[in-house]
Design the sequence.
């Protein structure tokens, strides 16, 4: 396993540094003066109750929404992404909750969607290099540990876990600096969830930085180094997963001192 | 022809080489899925063969060189336009204006030859480009103004047909140069020139569908427009291009048709859009987008032409032709829907 140790973050500069981000939707203060830091190679979870502002923060970082106030630095540069595409170009890959896969295209075509390899460049009539894409796709899936029996099969008809696998492999496959996952297993059963968690684990071994939103505390403790907690749009704190008890995270989420009545899911 | 059946890339899979192949319903699950992919086209091809055999048995005139080359020539214009229609349908669009555009290109091309004394090859090219210009308007309305394709092209259907009548005063344009006849009536050896035009279009568009960026993006846009956008595909621009290509093909079809009858006919192509859409759908194109092949469009176009030709040979009332074609379209669309449900159910089971 590669040692991407988050404990000596002072040595490496943070991959992502967020300062004072605020966002208002009409009468709702979705985010209020939020800070966040993700170190290089670190896996970070963003947790919080429904409506705490997790998705809003993720959308701002990936260019899908714009902050009213505050700023963030990604890979050492201050950024204001105007679109998801721009965020992608700078190395932030997002696995959307909807996955953004084209059902009628096969696995290889989806992995390369928007970034195809060509034999010959002729604008819209550029000739696809299908052999190269297939070879690269196979290597990519192997590297990320995503198991797809038939690379030529259409996405339509695949299980939820396989689809999620393709979407994650696609995000991981582009030498991206950070992968953002919004509730990657929310729609999956137990077995499929285990498979996706395995894939995320593989990313850790490869030193890929990950920021994930999850409601599943068991999963969060299994997968990440640091847990950041949002409550009513404010960042209430961060804890190392190895040094904190789940009950403490639960009370940070709910704001209650006594979390004994809450289940640890 | 049927090698790329049902799937945009036409590749055969390599299941079994990968670990975990047996995990997903075993190899049989994969074989079944593959079969479901090709089966709608196989069914259309089967129907084509059955009709072919039936007509050969029922009518002594069917299996003659004269009749078959007539069928090919008649089918060529529909097939050329059905190929463009399939590309449009793959993007989850529709083009109702192809008949009007073909007529407009035909009469304006004819007028350029007769009134402006343009040489026929040049006038033919201009006719095709007029089709492309009409397609550009369609594409602009769909891709940039964001009108529903149905509405955008319904408008163009009226505009193109209206301009056809305005420019000709509703009378056919006669007196075309003799040389122009070669496009619709000529032969290269035993092969009619329209058939050669069709083969050219098949080769070019077969390549575009399966091997180019445009083809790939068309499937992506039709399959999941939002995903295509998020992945950075400039969907609007590609949609415009797709409608331009369809316009060019409609213009080309219109010029071939004009040459067939040595005149520019303002009434040409009424109902042609229905034949083209029917051909695409019979050949496995899904009106929901993301699905359709060149080979399917060809099978569909010939199936329709066999039905029309057979009705004539067997002295079936001419109006029954459209009834039969309508029934075939219903069957094809129902099958598409049925298959879609099965696949979705299977996805939920696994
Ligand atoms: N586009 C929007 N317009 C108006 N209000 C919004 C919009 N997006 C989010 N909000 C509001 O902002 C607050 C934070 O929403 P957000 O989706 O970020 O929460 P979340 O933490 O992701 O919740 P969940 O766990 O339910 O996904 C909520 O009150 C929500 O209603
Ligand atoms: Mg959310």
Sequence:
């Amino acid at each position: 396993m590669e040692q991407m140790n988050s404990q000596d973050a002072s040595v490496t500069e943070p991959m992502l540094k967020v300062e004072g981000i605020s966002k208002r939707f009409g009468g709702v203060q979705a985010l209020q003066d939020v800070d966040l830091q993700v170190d290089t190679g670190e896996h970070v979870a963003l947790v919080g109750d429904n409506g705490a502002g997790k998705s809003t923060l993720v959308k701002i970082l990936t260019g899908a929404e714009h902050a009213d106030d505050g700023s963030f630095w990604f890979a050492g540069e201050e950024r204001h992404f105007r679109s998801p595409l721009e965020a992608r170009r700078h190395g932030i890959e997002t696995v959307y909750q909807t996955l953004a896969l084209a059902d009628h295209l096969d696995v290889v075509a989806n992995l390369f969607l928007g970034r195809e390899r060509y034999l010959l460049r002729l604008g819209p009539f550029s000739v696809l290099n299908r052999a190269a894409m297939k070879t690269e796709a196979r290597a990519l899936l192997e590297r990320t540990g995503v198991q797809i029996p038939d690379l030529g099969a259409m996405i339509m008809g695949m299980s939820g876990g396989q689809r999620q696998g393709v979407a994650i492999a696609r995000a991981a496959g582009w030498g991206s600096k950070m992968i953002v996952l919004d509730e990657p297993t929310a729609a999956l059963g137990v077995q499929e969830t285990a498979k996706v968690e395995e894939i995320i684990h593989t990313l850790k071994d490869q030193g890929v930085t990950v920021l994930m939103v999850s409601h599943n505390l068991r999963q969060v403790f299994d997968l990440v180094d640091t847990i950041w907690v949002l409550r009513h749009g404010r960042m209430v704190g961060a804890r190392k997963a190895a040094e904190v008890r789940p009950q403490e995270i639960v009370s940070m989420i709910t704001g209650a001192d006594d979390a004994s009545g809450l289940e640890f899911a | 022809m049927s090698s790329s059946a049902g799937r945009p890339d036409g590749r055969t899979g390599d299941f079994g080489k990968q670990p975990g192949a047996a995990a997903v319903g075993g190899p049989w699950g994969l074989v079944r899925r593959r079969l479901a992919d090709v089966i709608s086209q196989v069914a259309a091809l089967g129907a084509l063969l059955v009709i072919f055999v039936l007509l050969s048995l029922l009518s002594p005139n069917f299996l003659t060189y004269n009749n078959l080359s007539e069928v090919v020539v008649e089918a060529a214009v529909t097939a050329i336009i059905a190929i463009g229609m399939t590309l449009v349908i793959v993007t989850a669009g529709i083009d109702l204006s192809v008949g009007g555009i073909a007529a407009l290109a035909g009469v304006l091309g004819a007028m350029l030859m007769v009134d402006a004394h343009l040489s026929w090859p040049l006038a033919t090219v201009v006719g095709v480009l007029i089709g492309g210009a009409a397609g550009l308007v369609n594409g602009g309305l769909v891709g940039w103004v964001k009108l529903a394709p149905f509405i955008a092209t319904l408008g163009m259907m009226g505009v193109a047909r209206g301009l056809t009548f305005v420019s000709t005063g509703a009378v056919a344009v006669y007196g075309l140069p003799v040389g122009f006849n070669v496009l619709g009536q000529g032969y290269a050896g035993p092969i009619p020139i329209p058939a050669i035009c069709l083969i050219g279009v098949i080769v070019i568009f077969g390549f575009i569908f399966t091997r180019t960026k445009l083809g790939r993006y068309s499937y992506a846009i039709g399959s999941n427009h939002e995903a295509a956008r998020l992945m950075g595909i400039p969907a609007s621009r590609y949609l415009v291009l797709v409608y331009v290509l369809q316009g060019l093909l409609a213009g080309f079809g219109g010029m071939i048709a004009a040459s067939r009858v040595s005149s520019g006919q303002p009434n040409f192509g009424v109902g042609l859009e229905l034949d083209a859409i029917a051909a695409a759908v019979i050949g496995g194109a899904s009106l929901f987008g993301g699905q359709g092949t060149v080979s399917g469009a060809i099978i569909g176009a010939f199936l329709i032409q066999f039905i029309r030709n057979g009705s004539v040979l067997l002295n079936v009332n001419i109006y029954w032709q459209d009834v039969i074609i309508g029934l075939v379209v219903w069957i094809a669309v129902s099958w598409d829907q049925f298959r879609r449900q099965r696949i979705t159910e299977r996805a939920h089971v696994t």
About this structure: The longest strand of chain B covers residues 187-188.
